[in-house]
Amino acid sequence: MKQFIFYILLFVSVSGWAQVKFEAEASREKLGVNERLRVDFTMNQDGDNFNPPDFKGFTVIGGPNQSISQSFTNGRMSFQKKYSYFLQPNGRGNFKIGQAEVEIEGQTYKTPFIDIEVTAAVDTPTEGRNPEIIAADNIHLVAEISNRNPYLNEGISVRYKLYFSPEITVRQWYPKDNPTYADFWSQDIDIKHLSVKEDLYRGDPYQYVVIRETVLYPQKTGKLKIEPLSLTVPVNVPSDRRDIFGRRLYETIERTVSSNNQTIDVKALPSEGKPANFTGAVGSFNFKVTNTKDVLDATESLQIKLQVSGNGNLKLFQLPKLNLPSSLEVYEPEHLENVNTNLNGMYGNISDNYTVVPQLKGKYPINPVSFSYFDPRTETYKTLTSEEILLNVENGPINNAAQVTSTTSDGNTKQAVASAPSQFKYIQLDANLKPIDRSPFFKSVGFWTGVVMPLLLIPIGIVTGKKRKSYLADAANNTSKKADKLARKYLSEAKKNLGDQKQFYEALERALHNYLKAKLSIKTGEMSKDKIKALLAERGVEQETISAFIGILESCEFARYTPTSNVGMQQDYNKAKTTISELDKQW
């Protein structure tokens, strides 16, 4: 009888353990539109191909968070695997949480529907202190656009601000998806020092950091989209736990934030009043034509410079051409650009420098040159015209045709000019050619050398290849050892200060700068992030490694303003050591 009861109990317990359970549970069945909902999908056996419902009527603000637990109690093993989602209602009404699916031992299981009622907002929302919800509520990425209705080729700026509330701390961020600006000419502005400022976000006090500034010049008319910027941000969220001194402990949540899609409406430039010589310049400009000499001798050179200066799309239009008399020899102009970019767009000057050489004696007037541009502030076209330049060539061959002039239909005069005889040379007809050697090549010394030499080179190539392979293996090993040694050398001071945030990040930043000074031979004052990117790219460093190096520098800057944990410092130290080693391997 005892054995019979034992087997019955064993059968019941095994049957109960073997029964598959796949359930869905909501944290509440009724909530306000300003509250949050947690939904857990739990299974008692490990399953594959979990497929959540579409959560119609809700926005997923956290999850899926996965947890697995196993226990063995009184001879019975239990297993639980859970997927958790955090939902924000989109509006009031009655909704159904759909069925989730999972495969367990080849069978498909589904959860039942869950009915949820969403009411009007409640005075005191209750949703607990879930880290995912706290992170989602307290960090936002905003794109601010200076002008949403610009003209074609008129500069606008986009400033990306990362807002975070005082309840959390943010140490650093990593680009996850950068906008391409397909219909724009774009230029990123180097932000030399990151600074934390305070402002209101949707009526609440927040801190923010300007993480990127970009200037755009639209190249098409109509409605153009500006793609969002996405970042991966490790967020330190306060937990309910405290250390032995009573200080609140923080939990790090990795959060992805994105700016919204933005649309601007680009206006076409007006056709009314457009000058014939307009080449697309948009902005506010000055124009001048200067020459280095007024009096000179024939065959002596001078320079004539056409220069446009001001603020606008300086790199996106062509300068007018310089027209000269035919007796003045002119070379292709040298184009020079001295252009910088800030939030107001491009500013500086561009110029074409012409080298001119007169061939004959005489006086040569150079007609005025006109430059036209569109001013978006006044919404009108403007034309600037230079003064006439008179060149006096005193010594040289006389231009016999200098006094012969004619008048064209538009009132301008043409002057016939005699060419200098020295400009032309005759072709030498006596080539002074000699016959080549006609001796046969077949069976000659050169013939047999060409046949035998490739056969002799085969064993030499095999031996050389083996030696080269061995050398490369040793070189790679030596390079790796050298890289690790150099990383330890520069980062030793930072490692000593792990745990002291201020001293650690100062030492880490100093180590990165000293490394670059040793490798690039540049001064500390020249270490802007744009210049570092350009120099590393020139030396063939991979873009991923460059981004990692710049990210560490930004972490050092940002750590001056926000607290961080020992774990975060250790992560930055390990990342810096790995990055320096990678730089030495690639460089």
TrEMBL record:
<dbReference type="InterPro" id="IPR025738">
    <property type="entry name" value="BatD"/>
</dbReference>
<feature type="transmembrane region" description="Helical">
    <location>
        <begin position="445"/>
        <end position="463"/>
    </location>
</feature>
<keyword id="KW-0472">Membrane</keyword>
<keyword id="KW-0812">Transmembrane</keyword>
<dbReference type="Pfam" id="PF13584">
    <property type="entry name" value="BatD"/>
</dbReference>
<keyword id="KW-0732">Signal</keyword>
<feature type="signal peptide">
    <location>
        <begin position="1"/>
        <end position="18"/>
    </location>
</feature>
<protein>
    <recommendedName>
        <fullName>Oxygen tolerance</fullName>
    </recommendedName>
</protein>
<keyword id="KW-1133">Transmembrane helix</keyword>
